[in-house]
Amino acid sequence: MTLTYVYADQTAVLGPLATYAEPHAYDLCETHSERLSAPRGWDVLRLAQPAPPGPTNDDLLALADAVREAGRPAPVQRSLPEEETGRETTRRGHLRVLSTDH
């Protein structure tokens, strides 16, 4: 939260975290913003903190696509025998090692 003062009204204003620096604004952590008190005779005006934005439809669709893709079986790849390719192929998971000996 960001704390500012309105000296003319004897009011301390505690609002959402400022997006740019002000010379007379003070950023406070959650603990200190909850414990804030003002001098005697002053009022504390606490502005509501906006709710954090939730996931968008694009985020949810991207997540669903990623889950679908991860759940698809790996395509079967036909490998040519060593005699046809002239090199040995070793597979380990999604990695493939090709021999440079010809």
UniProtKB/TrEMBL annotation:
Source organism, top-level taxon: Bacteria
Region (Disordered): 70-102
InterPro entries associated with the record: DUF3499 (IPR021888)
Biased composition (Basic and acidic residues): 80-91
Pfam families: DUF3499 (PF12005)
The protein's name: DUF3499 domain-containing protein
Protein's organism: Nocardioides dokdonensis FR1436
Upper taxonomic lineage: Bacteria, Bacillati, Actinomycetota, Actinomycetes, Propionibacteriales
